[in-house]
Design goal:
Elements: E1 6-10, H1 14-26, E2 39-43, H2 50-55, H3 59-75, E3 80-82, H4 92-96, H5 106-118, E4 123-127, H6 130-135, H7 137-144, E5 148-150, H8 154-168, H9 175-187, E6 193-196, H10 208-211, E7 214-216, H11 217-228
Parallel strand pairs: 1-2, 1-3, 4-5, 4-6, 6-7
Helix pairs in contact: 5-7, 5-11
Length: about 240
């Protein structure tokens, strides 16, 4: 069966986009090249830093640059667009207003999955950039489902930001420390699960005893991108799609 062409606006960051593409291929049921999804990737690495433009209220700088990507994807005749960057979804409404092509809402889909698994009233931890945390995009979605969102205190949030930007700088990541942060939110803060709400965090390999407590927003986006492209997903367990 011929599927729908998928557009990806990446480069936020480039390594996360590479992992997103690899996992998209790995988790699509296909027995030949021709059964995979046709994909057009815009690796727009020079897009302004999303956290910076949100905190400095310079969103127009980001939107002006990304508009060209939507124009090129329209010419490429893609059917859906995936943007593997949580923080960029602060501008979702403005971005969707730039194109008639549906943009898969990474944040909405992730919170919906959590609600369906854990139910309303659940306490959910969030690990993300300062831009994502301060923008309130996850808090807004959690409120729709009566989910209680927990964000780390400043010292812990500073650690999370260091982990994220060390990955962007190709310095590497401290897997043990990051896993300790996840377990701290589960055991000390009594969170039912922890959202990995930054695609750089999705790159960190997690042990099964840690990944079972997480819901990876990138994994959710991969699943939805495959399904909307008319293909079948190999694995359905979102916390283990990267194991």
């Amino acid at each position: 069966m011929k599927g729908k062409r998928l557009g990806i606006i990446g480069g936020m960051g480039p390594k996360a986009t590479s992992v997103f593409f690899d996992k998209l291929i790995e988790n699509t049921v296909a027995n030949s090249d021709q059964e995979h999804i046709d994909i057009v990737i815009m690796n727009h690495a020079t897009l302004p830093d999303r956290t910076t433009v949100i905190l400095e209220e310079r969103g127009e700088d980001f939107l002006r640059e990304i508009k060209r990507d939507f124009e090129m994807l329209e010419k490429a005749e893609v059917s859906n667009i995936a943007i593997p960057c949580n923080t960029s979804h602060f501008f979702y409404e403005e971005m969707q207003g730039m194109t008639t092509i549906p943009i898969i809402h990474m944040v909405q889909e992730t919170v919906k999955e959590i609600y369906e698994k854990f139910g309303e009233g659940s306490k959910i931890g969030l690990l993300a950039t300062n831009g994502t945390v301060n923008s309130g995009i996850y808090e807004k979605e959690c409120q729709k489902y009566n989910l209680n969102l927990y964000t780390p205190n400043k010292p812990l949030q500073d650690e999370v930001m260091n982990i994220i930007y060390n990955i962007k700088a190709d310095i590497g990541s401290d897997q043990d420390r990051f896993e300790a942060i996840v377990h701290q939110l589960i055991k000390e803060e009594n969170c039912r699960c922890v959202i990995l709400a930054c695609t750089e965090l999705s790159i960190i390999p997690l042990r099964k005893e840690t990944s079972c407590h997480t819901v990876d927003a990138m994994a959710v986006l991969i699943e939805k991108a495959i399904e909307r492209s008319g293909k079948e997903v190999k694995r359905k367990e979102l916390s283990n799609i990267f194991v």
